[in-house]
Amino acid sequence: MRKFDDSAQLLLLAAFAIGSTLVISTILLSNIIYASNMASESTSDISNYEISNIAQMADEATRAAYYNATNNRTVPINESVFTQYMDSYATEASALYAFQGYSFSFDNSTLSDAYFTENGLYEGNPEWVLVKNISQTNKFMIDLTNTSKLGDASNAYEVRAINQSGTSIWFMKVYNDSSNITITVPGQTYSKTGSNIYLNITGNEINGGASDFNFGASTASDIYKIKFVNSSNAMGYYSISGGLADGDTFVEERYKVVNATISVASSNNKINVSIPITVP
């Protein structure tokens, strides 16, 4: 019985020693992490997270201002209502960050016609995928509001439908041949004049007149994506909606772009960020 008691006591002492070691190790590790974080914050008190949060706030405020100025419709837009909304946002955001010890300024440029690049600016990515995994497109329209931006045949703005094996199942090319605007789709070529060309791809219309884009028949039996190529040569408004392969619906559209500049300063550093925001 004595040997059993001695063994039990030894086990308890061993357990206590191990537990104490773990506690001490945890405290030391916590102190190391805390010291490391403090050193990091002392060199850069405006974190990447904070910049990301500011960018998200600006994006949401711009979109809210747009919808408020259009009554949830694309056009017409009330520019003064949009500006007032964004001015109010800048004032409220400045007050919010002042409580945190930051100086915040928001310089909001006016709404401009957007290029069809990924971020809406001329220098944005000109070759990008608009929507993936489409099973059905219900509406697809493109309004080229400034055809003078179009390139020639060798640098045409292109829209491609590409299936999951990477094969192009439909395409459209739009370019300026120096006297007319040429629109080419499989089996058809159209020639139009004017500074504004409206293409209703699913409705088979160009500027309200009948055409045959053959988009629905070409894409009916595939799961596909829509890709823009040479999109820095196209400017205006696009809208596409339909269903995805997983059963969800989608809506992608763009009407305008704002290139906002945000400045945040603390006692240690200052950061300026330029953020292109597209609407709607």
Condensed summary:
This protein is of the alpha+beta class and 280 residues long.
**CATH topology call of the largest domain:** Jelly Rolls
Report the helical percentage. 25-40%
H-E order: HHHEEEEEEEEEEHEEEEE
Ends apart, CA distance between termini: 82 Å
Q: Give the helix tally.
A: 4
The level 1 CATH classification of the largest domain is: Mainly Beta
- Main sheet record: 15 strands, antiparallel
Percentage of residues in DSSP E strands: 35-45%
What structural category characterises the helix and strand content?
Answer: alpha+beta
What does the model show?
By secondary structure, the chain is of the alpha+beta class. It has helices at residues 2-43, 48-70, 79-98, 215-219; strands spanning 103-107, 112-115, 128-144, 157-163, 168-176, 181-185, 188-192, 197-200, 205-206, 209-210, 224-229, 235-244, 249-254, 256-265, 270-279. It has three domains: 1-43; 48-108 and 257-279, no CATH class; 115-247, Jelly Rolls. It has four helices and 15 strands. The chain has a 15-stranded antiparallel sheet that branches. A hairpin with a 4-residue loop joins strand 14 and strand 15 (270-279). The longest helix has 42 residues, at 2-43. Residues 1-6 and 8-44 have low confidence and may be disordered.
Which features would summarize this protein structure in a list?
about 280 residues; alpha+beta; Jelly Rolls; 3 domains; 4 helices; about 30% helix; about 35% strand; disordered N terminus
